[in-house]
Amino acid sequence: MKQVTSALDEQTRDIIKSTVPVLQEHGNKITARFYQLMFKNHPELKNIFNQTNQRKGDQSHALANTVYAAAAHIDRLEDILPHVMPIAHKHRSLNIKPEHYPIVGKHLLLGMKDVLGEAATPEVIEAWEKAYNEIANVFISVEKGMYQKVEENTGGWVDFRNFKVTKKVVESDVITSFYLEPADGNPFPNHESGQYLTIKADIEGEPFTHLRQYTISCAPGEGFYRISVKREDATDNSPAGIVSNYLHEHVKEGSILPISAPSGDFVLDLEDTRPLVLLSGGVGLTPMMSMLETVIKEQPNREVFFIHAARNEKVHAMKERVQEIVKEHNQVTSFTVYSEAEETVQCDKTGYVDYEWLSSILPTNDAAFYFCGPEGFMDAINRNLIQYGVVASDSHFEFFGPAKELTA
């Protein structure tokens, strides 16, 4: 991580640190109010921000955590770089630019004033204005480097580029894969295993553009990008997924999809030669498939344990592909866990991935662990790995959507 030099004076830093308890208590209210005000004054930004995450409150919570982290580490802003990097990757994929930051800063301060009332003294607001500018400069600097890097890649591009759907494959009752190649026929850059694309969807009848991230589920160098999308049906707690249903129902072979260049820092470390443990739940399978298909090509002697949990066989995507890989590559061992398995359906475990079972199938905790899936699955895996004695630096994970804190 590079050194970040703060220009904030000691008095400003002291004021910011004094607001940490307030942010812990009121952070979610402040960020929720911030989004309300910003979208009221700049409705065009609804074309960038995921409105489903807004309604669920996930985006407000993620922003509150970032603001809190910045306040707590205001003396050493370089310490927030682990928080900055995933967000900066997301910003680059959404084409967030420096001119967006003053709009965010203005409305964040307005949100503070509205929620904190008299506690938001002129001194506090002035200090936070200075601090926000410092924090924004960190993001702008990091993102500038990302934009430059993607443009320097062979076939790289900034903004959105049209790709054609060359193949559409139903993988399970809820997951379908889309194979994408450049509509212009020109070169395009390889991704790193675990990265995602941002799809730009202009859907008839929708007032705003929808941007969604989907992990590339194939290895680099295949001549295409593949995304494997779960159709999000309506439930009692949430509406149907606008973009996932659009892709499943309306996008066909030959359709054109604008996408941004691959992004994300949840990527497979190919310099590590220790055993690799890939754990996925549901559609969290997608980055693991990319990593699996990559490691058998790039590290043919590296031991791999591929563990996938699904509700049942009907929603288990790419099962045949994994079985094919296991048959052809002795380095790979796979396990399947179904929470609702029928007696006639074969799987390695019925129920959930728990510590006792996980520790019984793995030979060592001195390995690289990557996991992805629904929030409950990730919390459980995180606790299992901690109990198994896996050190934090060997545990790698990514959330679909705004980042959250895993429970230990």
Overview in brief:
The protein has 408 residues and is of the alpha/beta class. 41% of the residues lie in helices and 17% in strands. It folds into 3 domains: 10-152, Orthogonal Bundle (Globin-like); 161-259, Translation factors (Elongation Factor Tu (Ef-tu), domain 3); 276-397, Rossmann fold (3-Layer(aba) Sandwich).
Provide key terms for this protein.
408 residues; alpha/beta; Globin-like; Elongation Factor Tu (Ef-tu), domain 3; Rossmann fold; six-stranded parallel β-sheet; four-stranded antiparallel β-sheet; 12 helices; 12 strands; 41% helix; globular; flavoprotein; Hmp; metal-binding
Write the layout of secondary structure elements.
Blueprint: H1 10-18, H2 20-41, H3 51-56, H4 58-72, H5 81-94, H6 100-116, H7 122-152, E1 161-170, E2 175-182, E3 196-201, E4 210-215, E5 225-230, H8 242-250, E6 256-259, E7 276-281, H9 285-298, E8 304-310, H10 319-328, E9 332-338, E10 349-350, H11 355-361, E11 368-372, H12 375-387, E12 395-397
Parallel strand pairs: 7-8, 7-11, 8-9, 9-10, 11-12
Antiparallel strand pairs: 1-2, 1-6, 2-5, 3-4
Helix pairs in contact: 1-7, 2-4, 2-6, 5-7, 6-7
Architecture overview:
The chain starts with 9 loop residues before the first helix and ends in an 11-residue tail after the last strand. Strand 1 and strand 2 form a beta hairpin. The chain folds into 3 domains: about 140 residues, Globins (Globin-like, Orthogonal Bundle), CATH 1.10.490; about 100 residues, Elongation Factor Tu (Ef-tu), domain 3 (Beta Barrel), CATH 2.40.30; about 120 residues, Rossmann fold (3-Layer(aba) Sandwich). The protein contains 12 helices and 12 strands. With about 400 residues, it is α/β, with parallel strands linked by helices. The longest helix is centred in the middle third of the chain and has 31 residues. It has a 6-stranded parallel beta sheet with strand order 10-9-8-7-11-12, with helices on both faces. A 4-stranded antiparallel beta sheet has the order 5-2-1-6. This is Flavohemoprotein. Its cofactor is heme b; FAD. Keywords: Detoxification, FAD, Flavoprotein, Heme, Iron, Metal-binding, NAD, NADP, Oxidoreductase, Oxygen transport, Transport. One of its GO terms (biological process) is response to toxic substance.
